[in-house]
């Protein structure tokens, strides 16, 4: 279970957000190799998303490797060349409303289940839980899984 976002030391990258997910995993902007300093609202959303990630981890009974959590429109990374830069656009997203921008989405793979074929199986295992966990999941052919906590527009299992 995730902690209260106000009780987390967000400057400690090894601090747990929940039982198995750490601050550094949520805040890393991997293509730039820097960490975003989140707003209070982003912190709150990250913690809610970590709760869902714990459920997914429990479902598989093994670790999860995070590919990307935050993708801010303005990276809060003072003292780096990337401060105030648009990470979401840098990684190729044209959306200004991506759930990643707000800490409400995670791209990941289940450890031991890498690759596109195994990700199809992982999606099929998560699919029956989407409504129960109040999440959405992308229906894509890729070597990662995307879940988010955005409200459902037309389908919980959707094409991006």
Describe this structure in words.
The chain has 160 residues and is of the alpha+beta class. The protein has a single domain (5-158), classed as 2-Layer Sandwich (Muramoyl-pentapeptide Carboxypeptidase, domain 2). 28% of the residues lie in helices and 15% in strands. The chain has 5 helices and 7 strands; from the N terminus they run H-E-E-H-E-H-E-H-H-E-E-E. The strands form 2 sheets. It has a 5-stranded mixed beta sheet with strand order 3-4-6-5-7. Strand 1 (28-29) and strand 2 form a beta hairpin. The radius of gyration is 15 Å and the shape is globular. The chain starts with 22 loop residues before the first helix and ends with a strand. The model has no long low-confidence stretch (mean pLDDT 95).
Major sheet strand order: 3-4-6-5-7
Question: What is the CA-atom radius of gyration, in angstroms?
Answer: 15 Å
Mean pLDDT over the residues: 95
Strand element count: 7
What structural class do helix, strand and pairing data support? alpha+beta
Q: What's the end-to-end separation, in Å? A: 29 Å
Name of the CATH architecture: 2-Layer Sandwich
Low-confidence stretches: none
Largest sheet: 5 strands, mixed
Question: What is the overall number of helices?
Answer: 5
Output the CATH topology.
Muramoyl-pentapeptide Carboxypeptidase, domain 2
Count of domains: 1
Please give the CATH class.
Alpha Beta
């Amino acid at each position: 279970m995730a902690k209260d976002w106000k009780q987390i030391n967000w400057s400690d990258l090894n601090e747990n957000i929940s039982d198995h997910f750490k601050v550094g995993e949520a805040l890393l902007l991997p293509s730039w190799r820097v960490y975003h300093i989140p707003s209070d609202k982003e912190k709150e959303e990250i913690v809610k998303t970590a709760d869902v990630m714990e459920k997914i981890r429990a479902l598989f009974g093994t670790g999860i490797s995070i590919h990307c959590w935050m993708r801010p429109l303005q990276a809060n990374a003072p003292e780096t060349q990337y401060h105030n830069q648009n990470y979401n656009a840098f990684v190729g997203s044209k959306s200004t409303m991506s759930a990643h921008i707000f800490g409400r989405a995670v791209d990941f793979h289940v450890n031991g289940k890498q690759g596109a074929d195994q990700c199809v199986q992982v999606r099929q295992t998560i699919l029956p839980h989407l409504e129960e966990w109040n999440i959405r999941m992308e229906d894509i052919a890729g070597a990662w899984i995307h879940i988010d906590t955005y409200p459902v527009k037309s389908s919980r299992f959707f094409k991006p």
